[in-house]
Write a structure and sequence with these properties.
Belongs to the methyltransferase superfamily. RsmI family. By secondary structure, the chain is of the alpha/beta class. It has helices spanning 36-44, 53-63, 79-92, 112-120, 133-141, 158-167, 184-195, 219-226, 251-263, 268-279, 283-295; strands spanning 20-24, 47-50, 70-73, 95-99, 124-128, 148-152, 174-179, 200-205, 213-218, 234-238. The chain has a 5-stranded parallel beta sheet, with helices on both faces. Strands 6-7-10-8-9 form a 5-stranded mixed beta sheet, with helices on both faces.
């Protein structure tokens, strides 16, 4: 035991083993959605690191439990400094519980730096799975859910936002975004411009709360609707881009795809077969495109 390990930390004697970092999912709205294990972890952790200690207090009251260990704040403003402090305690053997305001830590919330540092130091990291706005919105959207990607919050500045959207304009997976209520109208308008006004989407607000609403439709319609003002926590789900048809892939592009596969180590025959399959074209047409490119 070192001198700076006070009674508050309640650690057992040093055993030579590191502690455990526990990432705990918290309700995104309805406190009744709290995972059953959360109460036990709150009571048993040596340290509870919370994005907002006031919200943690309200959550504990709803669950009928008080944190058994020391409570510290862990938010964007002190994340860098606090990460180092918590890693020291974890290496000494502490059990540290990390909770954010809603959902899973690290998903557009504080936590990534602490997890990365814990992994680097060989500290065990586990999780209490819980509610997720990403998965809840995706399931409610009515859009394809077999393949999706989470894009977090779009950039605030219009130029940067448009550039980021253009990066995924041809992405065929369903896209999921978080957005603030006062920027969602501008973001939906930018999406309609970049992705196309008819691209399907869903705006999910106040999920699991009293005024939950899921508004579905083309991006242009949703952008006009949002101009009237939108309140609450917002998650936007956007349909992926349609797969390109055979007519959209020209000879030069076919030859480029084959060359890229060859550079990656594939034999030309296999590369031509794969490109033909992806483009929905006969292998002979892809072969002719490669020959034409070589001749040119």
């Amino acid at each position: 035991m070192t001198e700076d390990m006070t009674e508050e930390t309640r650690y057992t004697a040093y055993t030579g083993e590191t502690g455990t970092l526990v990432l705990a999912g918290t309700p995104i709205g309805d406190l009744a959605d709290a995972p059953p294990r959360l109460a036990a972890e709150l009571a048993g952790a040596d340290i509870v690191a919370a994005e907002d200690t006031r919200r943690l207090r309200r959550l504990g009251q709803a669950l009928g439990v008080q944190p058994g260990g020391r409570v510290v704040s862990y938010f964007e403003g002190n994340e860098t400094v606090r990460t180092g402090e918590l890693i020291k305690e974890l290496v000494r053997g502490a059990r540290v519980l990390l909770v954010t305001d809603a959902g899973m830590p690290s998903v557009s919330d504080p936590g990534y730096r602490l997890v990365a540092a814990a992994v680097e130091r060989g500290v065990r990291v586990t999780a209490v799975p819980g509610p997720s706005a990403v998965l809840t919105a995706l399931a409610l959207s009515g859009l394809p859910v077999d393949r999706f990607c989470f894009e977090g919050f779009p950039p605030r500045k219009a130029g940067e936002r448009a550039a980021r959207l253009r990066e995924v304009a041809t992405e065929q997976r369903t896209l999921v975004y978080f957005e603030s209520p006062h920027r969602v109208a501008a973001t939906l308008a930018a999406m309609a411009e970049v992705f196309g006004p008819e691209r399907r989407a869903a705006v999910c607000r106040e999920l699991t709360k009293t005024y939950e609403e899921v508004r579905r439709g083309p991006l242009a319609d949703l952008a006009r609707w949002a101009e009237q003002g939108v309140r609450g926590e917002i998650t936007v789900v956007v349909e992926g881009a349609p797969a390109p048809g055979p007519a959209e892939v020209g000879p030069d592009e076919l030859a480029r795809r084959v060359a890229a596969r060859e550079e990656a180590g594939e034999r030309r025959k296999e590369a031509i077969a794969q490109v033909a399959k992806e483009a929905g074209l006969p292998k002979r047409e892809v072969f002719d495109a490669v020959v034409a490119a070589k001749s040119g």
